[in-house]
Specification:
153 residues, alpha/beta, 2,3-Dihydroxybiphenyl 1,2-Dioxygenase, domain 1, 9-stranded mixed β-sheet, 4 helices
Length: 153
């Protein structure tokens, strides 16, 4: 298993518009379409990566994280499961499929930091792992625009 790249960082913000303008002015960030993940978010492209803004209403502690793209999510899943590192608390489950087929695995490191591990094709997972995947679209209504969202380009 190889980690290919850090694909995004999610940070809590007080005001979406103010934060988006800041990152646009300073880093040239551009807004992307985002799926409905059940929390108020806004995705921005910065170079080849992304910054995900998470509205901080005072209850988003512990949700800041970074996302890593890997070439073998099944191996990461098994290693994390054996260590008891899977985190079902953040989104109500630890393994999700986004519109477009990207799969997200949520886990915590020994210090409690949240990490999101991503792979391009949920349908390519072994059946025993695929059986544990939940679709974001089944949990949260998606608009036609939400369905166009892509975490990985």
């Amino acid at each position: 298993m190889t980690a290919l790249t850090i694909n995004h960082v999610t940070i809590p913000v007080r005001d979406f518009d103010e934060s988006e303008q800041f990152f646009a002015d300073i880093l040239g960030a551009e807004r992307l379409i985002s799926p409905n993940v059940g929390l108020p978010v806004r995705w921005l492209r910065v170079g080849d990566g992304q910054i995900h803004l998470l509205h901080d209403d005072g209850g988003s502690r512990g949700l800041a994280h970074f996302g890593v793209t890997v070439d073998d999510l099944a191996t990461v899943y098994e290693r994390a499961r054996l260590r008891g590192a899977l985190d079902p608390a953040v989104n109500g489950h630890h393994l999700w499929e986004l519109p477009g087929g990207v799969v997200q695995l949520y886990l915590r490191d020994p210090s409690g930091n949240l990490i999101e591990v991503n792979a391009r094709d949920a349908s390519a997972l072994p059946e025993h792992v695929r059986a544990d995947v939940r679709a974001v679209a089944d949990a949260h209504p998606q608009t036609a625009e939400n369905l166009e969202a892509r975490l990985l380009s």
